[in-house]
Amino acid sequence: MSDIITIEGGVPLKGRVRIEGAKNACLPIMAASLLCEDRVTLSDIPALEDVRTMCKVLDALGARTAYDPEQKKLQIETAAIIETKAPYDLVRKMRASFLVIGPLLARTGRARVSLPGGCAIGIRPIDLHLKGLKALGAEVIIGHGYIETVAGRLRGERIYLDFPSVGATENIMMAAALAEGTTVIENAAEEPEVVDLANFINAMGGRVLGAGTDTIRIEGTTKLTCADYTVIPDRIEAGTFMVGAAITGGEITVENVIPAHLSSLIAKLKEVGCRVEEEAGLIHISRREPIRAVDVKTMPYPGFPTDLQSPMMALLALAKGTSIITETVFDNRFMHVDELRRMGALIKIEGPTAVIAGREKLFGAPVRATDLRAGAALVLAGLAAQGKTEVSALYHIDRGYWRLTEKLQALGARIKRHPA
Ligand code: UD1
After folding, report:
1. Helix or strand (DSSP H, E) at 166
2. I need a labelling partner for 303 at 20 to 30 A (CA). Which of 64, 137, 173, 211 fits?
3. What does the domain layout of the chain look like in residue ranges?
4. Rounded mean pLDDT of the chain?
5. Annotated catalytic, 119?
């Protein structure tokens, strides 16, 4: 029987919480281990379902993964990559499995990956990934639910992305690391996780320059070697707790964060009426004033992250006044709206825009996590709502949050996880 989370709302969060390594940095870095013909040791790897799925994908390709959840360390031996097909039953669970196509192709000259699944947030095409791999010299064949790529040694090329896709930037960067000559990605994604991947490739002896700007230059090499690497902290998990403090009128310190990665959220939370102070590796946040309505537009980094759009919507549902949220990154990322409405939120959707008429109270209700970040938003709404909220479909939340219930309990929330 699957678990549910029950929350009795109304307790302000108080205390300190430590943030895990970034899921969205771990997954591409794990895929990039395929580039190295040796062994890599990764630290601060959270015990998430998505990390387990990526371990299974790598194992299916012939790598040997050994994960120690206590130490949060993951060793990956990649000497013997004997399989070039990433199977459907793993890839369908998690879209990020598609990130193995670039490194696998570069390493073995061939990669067959099932068409990706993951959160059902809109049409998530892979055309930019494929455009990049083709530009590097790969032949791409699509059929029977699989994408097959074949190439001799890849050749560096200049590639312009029509949209700064995080995954396409990462896949191309990984493939280019073993290509002959230099690749330049223009209009590249600038997300901190892209920078972390570049740093990891460089730690293996690669040469990636300019990550974190819109132009990334990758000078290909023939061989990458073993590396020890610690991933960056998860800015989305940190942001989720920060919104938790804001929505409950609490006061918390978030530890193991890089405040610069959260600038857009910090700016918005200050506009909302929070006090936010930054220190090296720490953010203190509290709210005593009423929640003010603000407008938010999601954008590629350094804009406001789409992954924090639904938590922000839960917060603004309790604002004094009307807020507008515009989602520009994904085309169907409002699935949490129906569930928030069940808790009394007054939200209207028109195309990519949500109009949120703030009200004084939300009310506890049974709700369903419709995707990973929507799940987090419902938990946050439950923390502030009057009465009991029951959140089901927790497998979405488990993909990206490690011990969310326990961490919130430690901050004083009346929350528990139990069989349905
Ligand atoms: C990554 C993150 C996800 C986050 C998203 C945007 C991981 C594992 N996941 O997802 O949490 O929400 O960045 O910050 O890191 N697109 C195309 N063609 C492509 C690829 C993407 O049109 O070939 C479009 C998508 O449909 C979407 C937009 O680009 O509308 C952004 O997608 P992308 O940046 O690629 O997100 P992901 O890498 O999938």
Report:
1. helix 166-177
2. 173
3. 3-20+233-419, 23-230
4. 95
5. yes
